[in-house]
């Protein structure tokens, strides 16, 4: 019985071993089957895809930069073009190599630590696989780096189109510059075909006309070797389209001359000259200027600090974004408002005291003893403040505010340069919102002479005087006059929006024009320094309060020839220069002489107008022979005192409340 039991146990054990062997064989078979099926899948079913991926590792799709359009001046002088730039590119996700770090540091004049930081934290753009270690390499360093990077697959010296500003600092605020697109700009513009490495306009006409200038990029496939170096171009997928050329109405000879005159003078300021018949800008100065070639490159922290902290506010385009009280250049607006309100231009205000009294407050003239019997023409010729005190107090603020806004003040001019400010033409609503106080008679008086809260930009004032020169119409000022399409060979003439003032009869303009000519031609005129034997000039000077100095801002605005169709409107502003007639008028006179020489072939003549000594009520002190007409000082601008003394407000009709 025991023997049989043992035999039965052996049978059971044998069966178990056989079962385990069978299970093992099945598992092994299944593993081989899975491997076989996977191999079959990879080789047969996925073969085409892996072949494609292998080709993708061998070939690269690269961008072909489109040549950016060039910029010319009115005489077809080349102003902005393209050159060759070099940048060192590093592919992300690769280990650092001490050998090439040392060589890069040596060739770029950087420390090894800086190179390491640039590799780790360089100008990384999230949409690309590389970053820019260093940009704007000079040609010699770039060629030396090329010899090094051939040994390292993840370094590349990239050649790109670099903007070249041939006049560098001239018209810098207007022309602007280009720089690599920012992440924010790319997100906004990628649907329009922009790529992460595109250069885009940052300021000036480079920004306004960026879409026309940049053209359209092309693309091509290149074959690379194991070291990631280019072997050959395989296929051009899309050819680049060159950007369009721009032609400015600006004459760079006049522009450069005027900037040199500002440099000699040393003061910050603005000068603008435009063609009133087209709105084309002839000259547009904002001084001081800055280097476009520096800003389009990798500007150093030291350079940036020096420019951004300069008290002269170098980066502010003073022509379109500098807001200043217009002073007596505004009086032509008030005079037209007087005419519109029914005041006879021959009606005289008798000023024999040198002030106009409101309650207990005396609003003073600049001329001690007053201007005597003064009509509208004399008020403009001598810049007689008391005339404007009297009649603005009579008609109220409403006609003056409306006329100013009709003539483009308190609003952008529409110039094709970004960054324009509106200025301020105040009224009671504006004052209440801004200061939480009511409008007083003194506010109207200050408004009438371009002081108080009133602020304008030089370009706005130029547009206002364009309405005057054209007797009621003006185009929006614009820098670009023509656009050239190199693909089609067509030249497009640029025209801007035209505004016509319907509510002002031609006789109004004739009255003001006659007075502004006399302001230049007569010995008692405040802009007599601009008198010229070859051309009739109409001009009005102004001096405006300067919160930073006792010396006022100097203005002059006008046009020529004033006895026939004017071809130039001009405005000059000098910050803290004192009297406008001599200082700003002198600068404008130099422009007039140069313009006649360059455009008409007329050599400048030495002409010294008769300038009589003045007596003034003003408390401000000026140096040398500077005029102090309409300085705005000593006229009762202390608003708190005026309001306390008079306790009076006015309606738009000038009635006391």
UniProtKB/TrEMBL annotation:
<feature type="compositionally biased region" description="Basic and acidic residues">
    <location>
        <begin position="636"/>
        <end position="647"/>
    </location>
</feature>
<dbReference type="GO" id="GO:0006508">
    <property type="term" value="P:proteolysis"/>
</dbReference>
<keyword id="KW-0997">Cell inner membrane</keyword>
<dbReference type="InterPro" id="IPR017790">
    <property type="entry name" value="Penicillin-binding_protein_2"/>
</dbReference>
<protein>
    <submittedName>
        <fullName>Penicillin-binding protein 2</fullName>
    </submittedName>
</protein>
<dbReference type="InterPro" id="IPR036138">
    <property type="entry name" value="PBP_dimer_sf"/>
</dbReference>
<dbReference type="GO" id="GO:0009252">
    <property type="term" value="P:peptidoglycan biosynthetic process"/>
</dbReference>
<keyword id="KW-0378">Hydrolase</keyword>
<dbReference type="GO" id="GO:0009002">
    <property type="term" value="F:serine-type D-Ala-D-Ala carboxypeptidase activity"/>
</dbReference>
<keyword id="KW-0573">Peptidoglycan synthesis</keyword>
<dbReference type="InterPro" id="IPR050515">
    <property type="entry name" value="Beta-lactam/transpept"/>
</dbReference>
<keyword id="KW-0472">Membrane</keyword>
<feature type="compositionally biased region" description="Low complexity">
    <location>
        <begin position="648"/>
        <end position="657"/>
    </location>
</feature>
<dbReference type="Pfam" id="PF03717">
    <property type="entry name" value="PBP_dimer"/>
</dbReference>
<feature type="compositionally biased region" description="Polar residues">
    <location>
        <begin position="614"/>
        <end position="626"/>
    </location>
</feature>
<keyword id="KW-0645">Protease</keyword>
<dbReference type="InterPro" id="IPR005311">
    <property type="entry name" value="PBP_dimer"/>
</dbReference>
<dbReference type="GO" id="GO:0005886">
    <property type="term" value="C:plasma membrane"/>
</dbReference>
<dbReference type="InterPro" id="IPR001460">
    <property type="entry name" value="PCN-bd_Tpept"/>
</dbReference>
<feature type="region of interest" description="Disordered">
    <location>
        <begin position="606"/>
        <end position="657"/>
    </location>
</feature>
<keyword id="KW-1003">Cell membrane</keyword>
<dbReference type="Pfam" id="PF00905">
    <property type="entry name" value="Transpeptidase"/>
</dbReference>
<dbReference type="GO" id="GO:0008360">
    <property type="term" value="P:regulation of cell shape"/>
</dbReference>
<dbReference type="GO" id="GO:0071972">
    <property type="term" value="F:peptidoglycan L,D-transpeptidase activity"/>
</dbReference>
<feature type="domain" description="Penicillin-binding protein transpeptidase">
    <location>
        <begin position="269"/>
        <end position="590"/>
    </location>
</feature>
<keyword id="KW-0133">Cell shape</keyword>
<dbReference type="GO" id="GO:0008658">
    <property type="term" value="F:penicillin binding"/>
</dbReference>
<dbReference type="GO" id="GO:0071555">
    <property type="term" value="P:cell wall organization"/>
</dbReference>
<keyword id="KW-0961">Cell wall biogenesis/degradation</keyword>
<feature type="transmembrane region" description="Helical">
    <location>
        <begin position="22"/>
        <end position="41"/>
    </location>
</feature>
<feature type="domain" description="Penicillin-binding protein dimerisation">
    <location>
        <begin position="64"/>
        <end position="234"/>
    </location>
</feature>
<keyword id="KW-0812">Transmembrane</keyword>
<keyword id="KW-1133">Transmembrane helix</keyword>
<dbReference type="InterPro" id="IPR012338">
    <property type="entry name" value="Beta-lactam/transpept-like"/>
</dbReference>
């Amino acid at each position: 019985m025991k023997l049989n039991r043992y035999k039965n146990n052996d049978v059971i054990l044998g069966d178990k071993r056989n079962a385990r062997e069978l299970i093992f064989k099945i598992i092994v078979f299944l593993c081989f089957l899975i491997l076989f099926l996977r191999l079959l899948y990879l080789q047969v079913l996925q073969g085409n895809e892996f072949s494609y991926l292998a080709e993708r590792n061998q070939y690269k799709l690269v961008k072909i930069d489109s040549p950016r359009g060039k910029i010319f001046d009115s005489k077809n002088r080349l102003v902005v073009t393209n050159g060759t730039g070099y940048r060192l590119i590093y592919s992300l996700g690769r280990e650092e190599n001490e050998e090439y770090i040392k060589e890069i540091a040596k060739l770029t004049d950087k420390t090894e630590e800086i190179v390491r930081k640039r590799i780790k934290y360089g100008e990384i753009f999230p949409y690309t696989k590389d970053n820019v270690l260093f940009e704007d390499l000079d040609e010699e360093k770039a060629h030396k780096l090329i010899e090094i990077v051939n040994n390292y697959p993840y370094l590349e010296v990239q050649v790109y189109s670099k903007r070249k500003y041939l006049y560098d600092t001239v018209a810098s605020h207007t022309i602007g510059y280009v720089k690599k697109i920012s992440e924010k700009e790319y997100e906004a513009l990628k649907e329009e075909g922009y790529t992460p490495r595109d250069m885009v306009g940052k300021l000036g006409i480079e920004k306004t006309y960026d879409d026309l200038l940049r053209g359209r990029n092309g693309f091509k496939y290149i074959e690379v070797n194991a070291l990631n170096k280019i072997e050959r171009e395989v296929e051009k997928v899309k050819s680049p389209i060159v950007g369009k050329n721009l032609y400015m109405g600006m004459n760079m000879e006049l522009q450069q001359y005027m900037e040199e005159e500002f440099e000699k003078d040393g003061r910050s300021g603005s000068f603008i000259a435009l063609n009133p018949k087209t709105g084309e800008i002839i000259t547009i100065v904002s001084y001081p200027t800055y280097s476009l070639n520096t800003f389009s490159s990798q500007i150093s922290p030291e350079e940036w600090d020096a420019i951004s902290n300069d008290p002269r506010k170098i980066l502010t385009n003073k022509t379109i974004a500098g807001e200043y009280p217009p002073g007596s250049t505004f009086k032509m607006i008030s005079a037209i408002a007087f005419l519109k309100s029914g005041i006879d231009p021959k009606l005289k205000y008798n000023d024999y005291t040198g002030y106009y009294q409101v309650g207990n407050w005396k609003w003073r003239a600049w001329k001690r003893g007053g201007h005597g019997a003064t009509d509208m023409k004399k008020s403009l010729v001598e810049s007689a403040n008391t005339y404007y005190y009297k009649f603005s107090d009579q008609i109220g603020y409403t006609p003056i505010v409306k006329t100013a806004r009709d003539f483009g003040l308190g609003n952008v001019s529409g110039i094709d340069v970004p960054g324009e400010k509106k200025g301020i033409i105040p009224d009671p609503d504006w004052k209440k919102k801004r200061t939480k106080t009511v409008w007083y008679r003194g506010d109207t008086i200050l408004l009438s002479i371009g002081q108080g809260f009133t602020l304008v930009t030089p370009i706005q004032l130029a547009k206002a005087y364009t309405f005057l020169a054209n007797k009621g119409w003006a185009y929006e000022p614009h820098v670009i006059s023509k656009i050239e399409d190199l693909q089609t060979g067509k030249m497009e003439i640029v025209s801007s929006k035209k505004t016509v003032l319907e509510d002002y009869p031609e006789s109004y303009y004739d009255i003001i024009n006659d007075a502004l000519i006399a302001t230049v031609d007569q010995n008692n005129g405040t802009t007599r320094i601009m008198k010229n034997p070859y051309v009739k000039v109409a001009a009005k000077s102004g001096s405006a309060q300067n919160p930073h100095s006792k010396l006022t801002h100097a203005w002059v605005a006008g046009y020529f020839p004033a006895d026939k169709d004017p071809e130039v409107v001009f405005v000059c502003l000098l910050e803290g220069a004192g009297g406008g007639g001599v200082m700003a008028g002198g600068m404008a006179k130099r422009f007039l002489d140069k313009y006649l020489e360059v455009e008409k072939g007329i050599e400048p003549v030495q002409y010294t107008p008769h300038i009589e000594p003045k007596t003034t009520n003003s408390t401000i002190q000026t140096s040398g022979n500077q005029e102090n007409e309409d300085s705005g000082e000593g006229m009762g601008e202390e608003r708190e005192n005026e309001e306390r003394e008079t306790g009076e407000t006015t309606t738009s009709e000038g009635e006391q409340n």
